[in-house]
Specification:
Blueprint lengths: L5 H8 L2 H7 L5 H15 L8 H9 L25 H8 L10 E8 L4 E7 L4 E7 L2 E3 L3 H7 L5 H9 L2 E11 L14 E2 L9 E3 L12 E8 L5 H13 L2 H13 L5 H4 E14 L9 H7 L5 E3 L10 H22 L2
Parallel strand pairs: 4-10
Antiparallel strand pairs: 1-2, 2-3, 5-8, 5-9, 6-7, 7-8
C-alpha cells in the first residue's frame, strides 16, 4: 500500500467532473461512459464523487482493451444461480456452531475491562448479552455509531459525512427469450447508451441449455444524482412514487433495445435499496476521522470498507485483517 500524498489530497478535494474539465476531457461519449462507471460502482455521478475515486475506478483494473480483444483471463466470469449467497454459505460453513445467524446487534457498551453486546436472538425470541474482552464492529459507520452506547467523536464525525445512494432493482420474469437481433451476441451485463438506468443482467446467460427460453432480467437504477440536493430528491422520489410508475419506466427503458419485451413479461418484482457502498464524496478518503478509527482502539475495533473511503472487497479484507491484528495485540497485552 503506497503512502497517501499531497497529490492524492488534491484529487480528493475536487469532483471527478471538475478534474476531467481541467484535463480537457469533454467528449460527450467519453463523459457519458465515465459518468456511467461512477453511477455503477458508487451510485452517484461524476459531478458527485471525488476525482480520486473516479481515477481509482480505472487504476485498480486491467485498463482498456481494444474491441474484439479475446483475453481469456478477462472473460473468465463465474456466477451462480443464487448469486453471492453461494459464496456466503461457503464462507460460513467452516465456522460451524460459532456462526450465529438470525442474531441482531442492539447495543454495544465498552467497559474498563470488557465489552457488553446486547443481541436479539430471533430464533429464541429473546435478548441476550454477550461479554468479550475485544469486539470488532465490521459495520457501516453510521450503524456502528448507533450501536455504541458512547460513540467516539471520530466515529460521529465520520458517520455524519457518509452518504448512501438509493437504488432500485427490478426483476422482470419473461415467459420466453427476447428476439436476438443481428449483430453482437447476447451479453450477461447489458448497458444502454445514455439511459438513466445501469442496464440489466440476464440470469440465464450462462445456462448450458442448447436453446434460449424463459429468463429473468435484473435491471438496476442508481439514484445518487450529481449533488447532495439531487440525492435527497431522488431518495424522496424512490420512496414516494408508486410501484406502477417505476415498473412502467423500467419497461419503457428496456423496450428501446427490446421492442418485444412487454409482450413477454409475466411478472415484475421491484425492490428499493440503500446502496451498501457509501458514496466517495470529495474529502472522505483523506478524512482525519477515518484515519483515527483505523488506528488500534482500546477494546472496540472498527473494520469496514467505509474506513477506506472506497468500498470494495479488497479494502474490506484489508480493514478486517488490520482489526484482527489489533484484537490479537490487545489480547496478548491483557494476558501478559
Amino acid at each position: 500500500r503506497s503512502a497517501w500524498s499531497a497529490a492524492h489530497d488534491a484529487l480528493d478535494r475536487v469532483t471527478f467532473a471538475q478534474w476531467l474539465d481541467e484535463q480537457g476531457l469533454r467528449a460527450p461519449a467519453l463523459r457519458w461512459y465515465l459518468d456511467y462507471c461512477c453511477r455503477d460502482d458508487y451510485g452517484a455521478g461524476a459531478r458527485h464523487v471525488s476525482a480520486w475515486a473516479g481515477i481509482h475506478y480505472f487504476a485498480s483494473r486491467h485498463g482498456f482493451h481494444a474491441p474484439g480483444d479475446t483475453d481469456d483471463e478477462r472473460d473468465a466470469l463465474l456466477t451462480w444461480p443464487e448469486g453471492n449467497a453461494w459464496l456466503s454459505r461457503r464462507l460460513a460453513a467452516p465456522l460451524g456452531v460459532r456462526f450465529h445467524p438470525a442474531t441482531v446487534g442492539l447495543r454495544v457498551v465498552e467497559g474498563r475491562h470488557d465489552v457488553d453486546v446486547d443481541l436479539w436472538n430471533a430464533a429464541a425470541q429473546r435478548v441476550e448479552r454477550w461479554t468479550a474482552p475485544q469486539v470488532v464492529l465490521a459495520l457501516p459507520l453510521f450503524v456502528a455509531a448507533r450501536l455504541l452506547a458512547a460513540a467516539p467523536a471520530a466515529l460521529v464525525e465520520a458517520a455524519a459525512t457518509m452518504r448512501h445512494a438509493p437504488w432500485l432493482v427490478a426483476n422482470l420474469h419473461l415467459t420466453s427469450a427476447l428476439t436476438d437481433r443481428p449483430g453482437a451476441a447476447p451479453s450477461w451485463d447489458n448497458v444502454m447508451y445514455r439511459s438513466p438506468t445501469l442496464g440489466y443482467v440476464d440470469a440465464t446467460h450462462q445456462s448450458l441449455l442448447p436453446y434460449a427460453g424463459a429468463t429473468v432480467l435484473s435491471a438496476y437504477w442508481a439514484l445518487g444524482g450529481d449533488s447532495a440536493v439531487e440525492l435527497a430528491a431522488q431518495r424522496a422520489r424512490l420512496l414516494n412514487e408508486p410501484w406502477s410508475a417505476w415498473a412502467n419506466t423500467i419497461v419503457q427503458e428496456l423496450s428501446i433495445p427490446h421492442p418485444d419485451l412487454r409482450a413477454r413479461i409475466e411478472r415484475i418484482d421491484l425492490m428499493r435499496y440503500g446502496h451498501a457502498m457509501s458514496i466517495p464524496l470529495p474529502g472522505v478518503r483523506s478524512s482525519a476521522a477515518l484515519r483515527a478509527l483505523a488506528a488500534p482502539q482500546p477494546r472496540v475495533q472498527f473494520a469496514h470498507s467505509d474506513l477506506s473511503g472506497y468500498s470494495v472487497f479488497e479494502e474490506a479484507l484489508h480493514q478486517g485483517t488490520r482489526a484482527a491484528g489489533a484484537v490479537r495485540a490487545g489480547l496478548q497485552k491483557a494476558t501478559g
